[in-house]
Specification:
This protein is an all-alpha fold. The protein has 2 helices and no strands. It is rod-shaped, with a radius of gyration of 25 Å. The relative contact order is 0.13.
């Protein structure tokens, strides 16, 4: 009886571990590549400034690809913001 109990417990543990995997190997995230400007950053001047301020300052990192950015969003009435 003890042996049957151990086998049932092992089978339950395997079933739980198997259920935790559930998913495909596809990476279907909607994250844009790190070297392009996301469309959310082009929504407003504030969003673009926030995006630019969060970019890491690095001499060795690859530059951001600005091919998709015809012109950064701008405001005629907002004050300039420093990117410290």
């Amino acid at each position: 009886m003890k042996r049957v109990h151990q086998l049932l417990l092992a089978a339950a543990a395997l079933a739980l571990l198997g259920a935790c995997n559930g998913g495909s190997d596809d990476d279907t995230s909607s994250q844009p590549p790190a070297d392009t400007v996301p469309s959310t950053a082009l929504a407003s001047p504030e969003a673009y400034t926030d995006y630019a301020a969060k970019l890491p300052a690095s001499e060795t990192a690859e530059p951001v690809n600005l091919d998709a950015v015809a012109q950064p969003p701008a405001s005629e009435t907002a004050e300039p913001v420093a990117l410290d």
